Amino acid sequence: MPALFALATSLLWGLADFGGGLLTRRTPALTVVVVSQALAVVVLGAIVIATGGWSEAGPQLWFAVGAGLVGPVAMLTFYKALALGPMGVVSPLGSLGVVVPVGVGLVLGERPGLAQVAGIVVAVAGVVLAGGPQFRGAPVQRQAVLLTLVAALGFGAVMALIAEASTTLTGLFLALFVQRVTNVVAGGAALYVSVRRGNPALPVEGFPWRSLPALSFVGLADVAANGTYSVAAQQGPVTVAAVLASLYPVVTALAARALLGERLRGVQAAGAGLALVGTVLLATG
Questions:
Q1: What is the pLDDT of residues 77-115, one digit of tens each?
Q2: Is the C-alpha dihedral spanning 49, 50, 55, 60 positive or negative?
Q3: What is the dihedral of CA 77, 82, 83, 88, to 10 degrees?
Q4: pTM
Q5: Where are the transmembrane segments (predicted)?
Q6: Separation of alpha carbons 226 and 236, rounded Å
Q7: Which H helix or E strand runs over 101?
Q8: Are 273 and 126 in contact (CB under 8 A)?
Q9: Distance (Å, rounded) from C-alpha 181 to C-alpha 38?
Q10: pLDDT tens, residue by residue, 191-227
Q11: Is the predicted pLDDT of residue 182 greater than 90, yes or no?
Q12: Distance between CA atoms of 236 and 234, rounded to whole angstroms?
């Protein structure tokens, strides 16, 4: 069961990234982040009120606040890296943040079996290859690599923090609500600074009202992914849950192939196959 929750996390994150990528073609990335998360806050707030989640408030919510602060920083750093370096290099490196929750699991005493260790290695290799890394071509700026690694550590830190933010289902709703409120505050502050520097907050045609359903999907899919990952990390080994949850680049690549007709390169197809093999090893190990 934990493996299914972790795989659901990959599916949701992969689709959220795909949808977010499409939206940022017309709307500034910061605006997409802030609006999608604000819509998620409204839904989560209603759920917290309906379930009485406020009763679960406690010191562990600081983990949710931490995740909410780290998330936007990691995302903005990642976007900056994409602007500086080839996407075929930056994107796969961004998935290496899985080492953070895996490392936390090992420190806490988890010891995966031989089959699971093999699955971790194969799955991580598959994720990196699925991003279509460029083995030759344009040089990569050292700053782009550094920013990507910082973003990867941030993504991994969010996974580690949200897994510690709650122990019950109602507590999880409250933790996700606090995380998203923090996301909106931090993202909103960054958006304000960006506008003050002369960058547009909206596309030329104005607020993208027609994109509200897509923005809602991106925000809610991201929230749901954090929720399913938290459940997977609490019910099973974090080392396994983190790797299975990090297969989302494969989902994004397959969604682009199915919905946009983008053709997978040979290295991406091989990566998807390796990720599948790693998944089987992790689920059965």
A1: 876 776 665 555 566 666 677 777 777 777 777 777 777
A2: negative
A3: 160
A4: 0.79
A5: 28-49, 61-82, 113-132, 144-163, 238-260, 267-284
A6: 15
A7: helix 99-107
A8: yes
A9: 7
A10: 999 899 988 888 888 888 888 999 999 989 988 998 9
A11: yes
A12: 6
Closest CA to 44 of 162, 168, 159, 174: 174
Going by the DSSP 8-state scheme, the letter that residue 246 receives in this structure is T
Give the pLDDT of residue 184.
93
Q: What does the alpha-carbon distance between residue 129 and residue 274 come to, in Å, rounded to a whole number?
A: 9
Tell me the C-alpha distance between 153 and 147, whole Å: 10
Task: Annotate 37-82 with DSSP letters as a single string.
Answer: HHHHHHHHHHHHHHHTGGGG-STTHHHHHHHHHHHHHHHHHHHHHH
User: Quick one: tokens of 107?
Assistant: 């420190």
Round to whole Å and give the CA distance between 171 and 274.
Answer: 36
User: What are 248's two structure tokens?
Assistant: 């989302």
Q: How many domains does the chain have?
A: 1
